[in-house]
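User: Can you predict the 3D structure for this chain?
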Amino acid sequence: MLEVIEARFGWPKQPDFLAIDALHIGTGERVFLRGGSGSGKSTLLGLVAGIHRARAIRFDVLGSNLLEMSAGQRDDFRGANLGIVFQQFNLVPCLDVLGNVLLPLTFSRTLRRATGGIAEARERARALLLRLGIDSNAHARSPSELSVGQQQRIAVARALLGRPRLLLCDEPTSALDAGSREAFIEVLLAETEALGTAMLFVSHDPALASHFHRALDIESFRIDAAASA
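Assistant: Here is the predicted structure, written as structure tokens:
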């Protein structure tokens, strides 16, 4: 699912602050990446998603070399192949719940084909929402009318709609209390396991690590800025 060898990254005109000697994620493997706020966790996810571009000997996602792709090609690849759950959910308030789940189909012909077309995708979206605890009575409502926990599950349904082989989660539990957080993790793990989807989940909360096959620390990928200047 992911193979990274000797990758480095820094912002333009700034020293490198991430150095990944090796990072691998196998098929169906769930990996937890912990680290504090501002430590580079989201940046690493952005590299895997192709939003940012690292310098590397190898940076393969789902067997495709991101280093050989243009920015537009990486955008197309991300939309067609990856599921992403953002920290702020990125739901569109002018669309109803079902419309938010189906939104990625608007931008990816490949994803439309993978889901069997709009009609089949709509049925899959409804089924996903129900399994995630979003009652059918809420499907035509605005996400802004629902709780934070419900909005989060809508974001997960959207990310899983295309049956992605790799799911990237950026601090999706940060706004939840302990009870809601545990319930959300259980649902997320059940859905990814049913699909055989691998997952890279980043969080500052080490208590969540026990739910995953293995845990990594972002500090192992960081470069001391003073030393690299």
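The mean pLDDT is 89. The first strand starts at residue 2 and ends at 9.
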